Amino acid sequence: MSEHTMRAVTLSGFGGPEVLTVGRVARPEPLPTEVLVRVHAAGINPVDWKTRAGQGMAGLQRLPLILGWDVSGVVEEVGFGVTTLAPGDEVYAMPWFPRPAGGYAEYVTAPSRQFARKPASIGHTEAAALPLAALTAWHALVDTAGVRAGQRVLVHAAAGGVGHLAVQMARHLGAEVVATARESRHAWLEELGADETIDYTRQRFEEATGGVDVVIDLIGGLDATDVRSVAVTRPGGLVVSVPGGVSPALAAAAGRAGVRTSPLLVEPDGAALTAIAGLVDSGAVRVAVEHVFALEQAAEAHRRGETNRTRGKLVLDVAG
Predict the structure, then answer these.
(1) Do residue 138 and residue 45 come from a single domain?
(2) Quick check: helix, strand or coil at residue 141?
(3) Which end of the chain, N or C, is more open, meaning fewer C-beta atoms within 10 Å of its C-beta?
(4) Is 213 helix (H, G, I), strand (E, B) or coil?
């Protein structure tokens, strides 16, 4: 095939998983300060299937579209002015978010400083599962909440992609960690560092815990999880609401209780990815990959993800 084309998963219209098709498209070329990366694996996130369905970040995209923001691969070419990376470097990133990055493809281009060298102790499959989820957890715990030793941190949806990484990061920061998840995930979450686990299907979490300094809310308005989180948060504590931001109902409840709130939308952050790679290589954080799909199985991967029963992450094997 021509060196100017590549395989990619594209969609020409929003809809169900069936709109994802594999074909050949033009290969991107790096501009000054950008790198061209040959993608070995691409992580899959809820924002991917929400965007595919016309929700999520769909309003910021143009069709036809190549989905995907999480990538791990090898630098193939560098644009003028790049000094931090060179051809042959193994890197991982969440480039361009929320603008389109085209991660479900054999090549991506993006500014060099949105990338970081991938953790040396893991392969591309695991590295591709990290960026969006790990950066979300990092930005919430470190940059937004400033979690410190001795605090109590509640992580909702703790067995998911962001959640299982947030549990480990909070523990690394010295916090006492409370995790909500189905009972079948409790033993695993305790291995990751959770001090207290709550089965949200059997017990309302606000009846099981309290005195929390920081809530990492990865559920939002579903079953009023965001508003109910105020009841377990101490006055002056913080609820970081990731999906959808701070709703009027959450803001009102928090205001009455003297609890702070913050929205969060993850951003590309090569410096943070370097720090996260250090945590992975030190053994402080490990990423769980539940299943790896071939690039041609992207639709199947989305169907699996939309069940909301994934333990950790799903990944596409792009290099195949």
Answers:
(1) no
(2) helix
(3) N
(4) strand
Residues 70 and 99 in one domain: yes
Query: What is the domain extent for residue 87?
Result: 5-130+287-317
Residues 254 and 150 reside in one and the same domain:
yes
Indicate whether this model's pTM tops 0.90: yes
Domain membership flag for residue 268: no
- If asked whether residues 160 and 204 sit together in one domain, one would say yes
How confident is the model over 198-255, as pLDDT tens digits? 999 999 999 999 999 999 999 999 999 999 999 999 999 999 999 989 999 999 999 9
pLDDT digits (tens, 9 = 90+) for 162-207: 999 999 999 999 999 999 999 999 999 999 999 999 999 999 999 9
In this structure, the answer to whether residues 116 and 162 fall within a common structural domain is: no
CA distance 154 to 200: 13
Residues paired with 4 in a beta bridge: none
Q: Taking 80 as the threshold, does the pLDDT of residue 2 lie above it? A: no
CA distance linking residue 72 with residue 90, whole number of Å: 8
Tokens found for residue 268: 């590309």
Same domain, 53 and 18: yes
CB-CB contact of 20 with 11 (8 Å): yes
- What is the DSSP pairing of strand 313-317 with strand 289-294? parallel
Coil/strand/helix, residue 50: helix
The structure tokens listed for 253 are 């409840």
User: Can you give the CATH number for the domain in which 37 is found?
Assistant: 3.90.180.10
- Beta bridge partners, 314, equal 44, 291
Within 13 Å and on the Cβ side, how many CA atoms surround 136? Answer: 30
